[in-house]
Amino acid sequence: MKVTDLNLGEQLKMSEREIRRRLELLSITPREMEEMIGLKPLIAPHVDDLVEQFYAMQVEVEEIAKLIGDSETLARLKKHLCRYILTLFDGDYGMEYVLSRLRIGMVHKRIGVPPKLYVPSLHNLFSLLRRRILLASGNDCGICGRRLEALEKLLLFDLELVFDTYIHSLMDALAKGRQELEEYAESLEQTVAQRTQELAALASKDGLTGLLNQRSFYEELRRETARTLRTEGKIALLYLDLDGFKKVNDTLGHRQGDEILLAIADIIRPVVRAEDIAARYGGDEFCILLPHSGAPEAKEVAQRLIQAFDNEPRLAGRQVFLSIGIAVENWNDLRDGDLLVKKADAAMYLSKKISGHAVTVADQTGEPLSSP
C-alpha cells in the first residue's frame, strides 16, 4: 500500500481510542468541553480582531515575515486562523478535529516553520485568547480559571498533534537516511518533550515572581486537603496582603511595585519548608499552605516572614506592611479547601485594621483572635 493511500491519521495510527486516551491524559473532560462551547459566543464576534492582533505580532518577527512572504499568503493565513480559533470552541475533539490539527503540523513542517517559531506563536495566540476570556469573565475568578484551564489543556492537545507530524516526518526521513539522521531525530524528540514539559511548568507559575499561580495553588490545595483527610492530620494556611502597596504602585509606578512583589517572593522561599506550598494568589496577595501544621507552626512562619520583611533592604522605607490571616483545620473539622481559603482571607482583613504588621488567627469556629 502506498503512503498516498493513507491519510495522516492512518499513517500515525491515530485511532478513536488513541484520541480518547490523549484527552484523558490531559484531563480534558466533558466539563472542559462544555466550557469551550460556552466560550464560543463570547469569542466569535471578536475573532477577526484577534487574528489581526496575532498577525501584527507575527510579522514583527523577521523569520516569520520571510516565511509568509506576501500579502496574499498573509490574507489566506488569516482566514485559516479564523477557522482554527472557532473550531477550538466547538467542543468536538474527535477524528475530524485531530486530522485538521495533524494537517496544520504537516503544512508548517513542509514550509519550514521550526518548533522554535511555532511554540512562541501558539503562546501569543493563547495570550490574546486569555485576554479576551478575562474580559468576558468579568470579576468571576472561578469561571475565568475554569475557562483558561480548559483552553490551556486544549492547546497542549493541539501542540502534541502538531509535533506528532513533525516527528512523523523525521521518522519517515530516518527510514531513508543513515545514522546521522537517526541521532538528529532522537535529539529532536527530546527537545519536543522538554519544550512540552517547560510549557506545562510555565503554565503553573506566576510570570513575575516564579511562585505558583492561583490555578496551580488550588490544584495543590485539593491534593493536600485530600491527603489531610486520608492521614487524619492537620493543615494550616497563611493569607498575606501588602498594606500600602497600592499607594506605592500608584505614586512610584508599576516597576517599583514589581520590585516589592519580587522581594516578597524572595522572602517567602527561604522561610517555607520543601513540603510547603507558596503561591501568588493575585495582585499583592500571597498564600502559603503548610501541610501537617497547626497554629503554632503557622504563627512561627508568620513571625519569620515579618522579621525577614523588616530586614529586606528593598523594602526599607516603603511604608508597606504585612497583613497576615491564618486558618488552621484538623482533619475531623476540615470540610473544604475553598472554605480554608475564605477563613484565612477573612482573618487577613481583620489584620488590615491593625497598624503596621499584623497576624490574625481564625479559630475552629471562625472567631478571629488578633495579635500585632
What is this structure, in a nutshell?
The protein has 15 helices and 6 strands.
Residue runs with pLDDT of under 50 for 5 or more positions? none
What is the name of the CATH superfamily of the largest domain? Globins
End-to-end separation:
79 Å
For the record, what CATH class of the largest domain applies?
A: Mainly Alpha
Topology:
Elements: H1 8-11, H2 16-25, H3 30-43, H4 47-58, H5 62-68, H6 71-88, H7 95-110, H8 115-137, H9 141-176, H10 179-204, H11 214-231, E1 234-243, H12 245-252, H13 254-271, E2 277-282, E3 285-291, H14 295-310, E4 321-330, H15 337-351, E5 358-362, E6 368-371
Parallel strand pairs: 4-5
Antiparallel strand pairs: 1-3, 1-4, 2-3, 5-6
Detailed description of the structure:
The structure is a single chain. This protein is an alpha+beta fold and 372 residues long. The protein has two domains: 3-204, Globins (Globin-like, Orthogonal Bundle), CATH 1.10.490; 214-371, 2-Layer Sandwich (Alpha-Beta Plaits). It is 65% helix and 11% strand. The protein has 15 helices and six strands. A six-stranded mixed beta sheet has the order 2-3-1-4-5-6, with helices on both faces. Strand 5 (358-362) and strand 6 form a beta hairpin. The chain is elongated and about 75 Å long.
